[in-house]
## 1
Amino acid sequence: MNLLMFLGGLILLVIGANLLVRGASKLAMSFGISPLVVGLTIVAFGTSAPELAVSVGAVLDGKTDIAIGNVVGSNIFNVLFILGISALIAPLVVNIQLIRQEVPIMLGASLLLLALSLDGQISALDGGFLFALMVAYTVFLVVQSRRETQAAKDDFAGEIHPAEAGAWDSHWAAQIGLIAAGLVALVFGSDFLVQAAVSFAKAMGVSDLVIGLTIVAAGTSMPEVATSVTAAFKGERDIAVGNVVGSNTFNILGCLGLTGLVSGDLGLAIAPSLLAFDIWVMLAVALACLPVFMTGREIARWEGGVFLGYYLAYVAYLILAAQQHDALQAFSGVMLGFVVPLTVVTLVVVMIRRPSAAGAP
């Protein structure tokens, strides 16, 4: 029953996100907003709608560990798993704007989350600050989009089409109906997913936090998985990377910002284990994007394999730690004493031998 509830919630989240994006993008274009702006805002944020719905729903149910674990776990999953799988399908091209602007913003948002978490909670004031930054970032993207080249506008126009005259979704009433249906699906889907996740945690003897970091995080990232993998198969490899980076920034500023505001006077309590380990992993993953992206302005297949391997190692660590398994110490020793240093040395060698994108036009 719990498995059916989890799968049903996941399906509702994916359907809800698609309905929301479709209705909102067509409504925006009906009012004369360009496909480029729609792509940079509504579509990019729409893929993170499940994370937002689950995190807010979890806080309203008093499950703050799931709310925060979902965001942190999703950001780790997005980079290591989604980019890893996508790069294994085809080496991913990294747009120079991502290296110069979007990745540093994602890294800055991760650092800000760490700083705000040091006192053990995300207060309503912290949430308001994060959400204000999200609004400012969105306005910045819209203003910046006006200076984009015609080629960039044509790319987004090819991805996002206005409703054709006479089509059933060409009227504003149908578009609002799509938005409303998407929101309803997101609300019910998030409720089912959170209830099932709590039941899983109790049955497996692990904490809500671990379930939020793994099962819920992977589940709510399904729209990003679908978008990035499809883009990789279609050869639109820059979209695959941009979708992940933009989603991670929105998860921290938008999802945690709004969730913090909803939490009210209680705030979002940060679990000691989250502050001691998982947030640092999220920060390390964001930081690792810079050297990986800069080496030849692509994510090679072997780098995708490394990303995927690290995600599997991260999940294995969480499971071993939750069970206090005897192999935990040996596993940690191998990762910290051999695997991580070897990866760092390999990246340094690759950066030296391959041209950097930092000075590219």
## 2
Amino acid sequence: MRVIERGSGSPRVAVVGGIHGDEPAGERIVEQLVEEVRVADERIEGTVQLVVANERALAVGERYTEVDLNRTFPGDVESDTYETALAARLTTVLEGADAILALHTSHSVPPPFAIYSDLTESVRKTVTGMPVEYVVDAGNLRDTTLDSTLPHTVSLEAGRQGSEEAVDFGLEAARAFLRAHGVLHDEEPSFRETPVVTVDEEVPKGGGEPAVYYRNFEEIPKGEVFARDDVYTHRVTSEGMVPVLASEDGYDDIFGLYGRFTGTLEPHFHSGT
């Protein structure tokens, strides 16, 4: 794990890349921010933590070396398993931060979107301050991800894994995140309403040739098939269902997630971050 800090005092905000070693966009974005924040030091208020998390997995280009880092938080510093111990170290580094942005990419199709598990005012500010079209509420899905473990954390799915577009968008969104929380003053922050999709169900994958018929956030008509392979045919049985992280090849065990539009985040904040 590599940690670079700039500035001093409060608020303390963090940008984390490289949680998964086969998503190098996050590391590239963090490295670019290191240079930009160095140049802008006199315009920084508070502390910026820039973190490259899973250097060992990045070095070999694999999602993880032993276990998925983003399925093992808060971790165990005494563990002999590399990612389990790393999760505990990363948790210690980030604990108490006022806002955290975790950078990801996927094999899923655009548009980029944000994910949160606990809607704090800091999370509201992060989401509505970034140029994302949607945000996913995953609070009922898992409790071992970074955003479900540390308060004020938002994960960003910046785009397609391996694409330059994901790097460009992720960098734009990370800059907007730093502006939104008042630590970077190169230009005024901008806030917008953001539609919310709540997810609570994984769509399992079996084996054989997979096929996915609907894109992220595209409503699947009742009775239509979302995805199938040689084991499963997933036919939607209720109105209003939309897929999230929909992909034929992105995951070994799931086609993605089922969700529903459940509201809109408005950019209203209490005092402080």
## 3
Amino acid sequence: MADEINIRIPFAEASETLKKYLGLVGSPVAIKLVKDKTGIPEGIPEIPETVRHCQMVNFARKEGRIFYATSEKHQCAGGAWALGLREIPPSLKSGEHYFKLGKFASWAACKRTIDRIPHLDTRETYATIYAPLERTPFHPHVILIIAPPRAMLKLTQSSLYRLGGRIVSQMAGIQSVCSDATAQTYLTGTPNFSVGCDGSRKFSGIADDEMVMGFPAEILAEVTDAIKVVTSAPGSI
């Protein structure tokens, strides 16, 4: 059975709405985590480079590229693990990696953080697929947006427009685009915001005034409909 969304979503129209009302630089990015080779639509090429997940997101966001990437094309071992492409490296699992990078005061503090990083089961994912939302030729699992805080404010309001409540974001300042915005969103089915991480800001072009958000593709139409309302509501900035 095809891994598809049983909801009609006009991707091009949704992307145009997000760009217009949020003032996005680049495109929202559609991401799919496929279980096996048959899940890759015909005609989508494999990325020729070996780079990080966050860089792949930027290729789709800024350059309009559409491609898939197997484990061998993922340069960042931590990102590949979070996305279910390969096993966690021993140095990352033990806490050694980030401790030696000076991210934590103790090895134990690092281990506590690693143990709580959202991730898919090892080798649950065969490949990741990327596309600018307006041109996606597949049914994505996650829509990822990189934008300034004001846009994130409107995405927050749009996510809560129908049912209300609170958004509880989880982040750790590491593995932002791979775990916080992609894996966690996929696993929980709820939006998540992240401030980015050193790696994603260094390698993928996330600007100092930008944040990261992922939300499940199933609520894309709901979010885009709400954005039109909350951005024009009395008192909206």
## 4
Amino acid sequence: MNATIQNLLSHRSIRHYQDKDISDEMLNNILTAASRGATTGNMQLYSIIVNKDKNIKQQLAPLHFNQPAVIEAPVVLTFCADFNRFIKWCDLRHAQHGFNNMQCYTWAVVDAVIAAQNAVIAAESMGLGTCYMGTVTYNVKPLCKLYQLPKHVVPVACVTIGYPAEQPDLTDRLPLKAVIHQERYHDYSDNDINDIYHEKEHSELTQQLLESNKMNNLAQIFAERRYTKQDNEHFAKELVDFLVEQDFM
């Protein structure tokens, strides 16, 4: 097993960080690695906002539900789907374009996420810890206001980076057979589902979650507590409204 694969297999989310800065050289290497990720048509349809200032991070924290990592991490990177730069270039060169649509937004989201993952891999290869903040899409409008984002720019991912102050266990994953399909998609029978989720459903952590949530099974915790229909529809509408404001729809 080479070092890259070992690094990937060792990934864990770090939510607490040491009070220690990252050197400018390390950060520059992380950002350079991010910029070398694959990108749609080599257009690089993303921008990365680097937050190190404590005052800015204090304003940022509530938009990530006050997760300690946002304050503790010396660096917070927000990855934005960005067609603003490319559209302005086309306008200056009198190139007729049609980039304000869902297809192009999807391109930009993919570019931004690839850049984010490259940054994570680079940071972890240097012994740093990282954590994706899954709260970006809940607060796109206030993030837009804080970052003063123009039209055609939408935040899609956020990563905290720093020296770990913890070493949590690896998070469980479904077996490969759950996500790998050979040649064509193989739909799941009831037996397949029971088999795939058996270990996760019977783990010690799941038993603790069932007890604390007073629910019958893990699927109910995900569907009825963590990601409810009401919340999903509310934030989906807010995101669609924001994409209209940003001229992507």
